[in-house]
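Handout for the seminar on molecular recognition.
Each group receives one record of this type.
Step one: identify the two inputs.
Step two: read the structure output and locate the region that could contact zinc ion.
Step three: write two sentences on what you found, then compare them with the reference statements printed after the record.
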Amino acid sequence: MVHFDTLEQQGVTVAGLSGLDDGDCGWSPRTDGQRAAYLRRCGLEPAHLVSVRQVHGSRVAVVSDADRGCGANMDALVSAPVADGMITDVPGLPLGIMVADCVPVYLVAPGAIGLVHAGRKGTRQGISRSAVNALVQHFGAAPETLWALVGPSAGPCCYEVSEEMARDWRGKGLPARGCFLDLWETNRRQLIASGVPEGQIQVSGCCTICGTTYHSYRRDGGTGRNLAVLCR
Ligand SMILES: [Zn+2]
């Protein structure tokens, strides 16, 4: 279990990411207990968790008290919004996103928060930019007041894709070294382009694939998920 102090110092109750030590925090009847235990260790109520049905897109949902509990377990998840990001201004509403190599992006504004699942596709479609725009549009957040974290995920050291995908990536002017894509820098640039000050964007620099702290889809062959949590 890792907590991100920089964000917690900005007034959010919890900004964290579960790791190997916390077990598999994904959604299945087998793992619901592990996720609930992790949330309790974070001081959050598992029955109140809000999540989204992640589809590797770039849609950002606005969630509120009406969504409370839609991420509590697999049955509840059926009613969760289909999206890869969430924003809310509700204090005490815990947001959770499932990742294992995809990038969790955390956003903290003075009166609202956002949590994003930025995989290769979502990153390419600009989901970090969409999330900042959503905070501005729905909650009147000024981009220069935002703090952001590009969390532990597949690093440019290890995230190798096919030549065809890499060509497409480089063709869009996105950062890559040969067939190794840089999802961290791509999301960081989107945040900067959206008006978030560079000094308020933290990149964890922790790679899930070559590190030993988190579950990795690439390294472990698809078993085990990390849960990113953020709560005002
Ligand atoms: Zn690596």
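Reference statements: The mean pLDDT is 96. The first strand starts at residue 2 and ends at 3.
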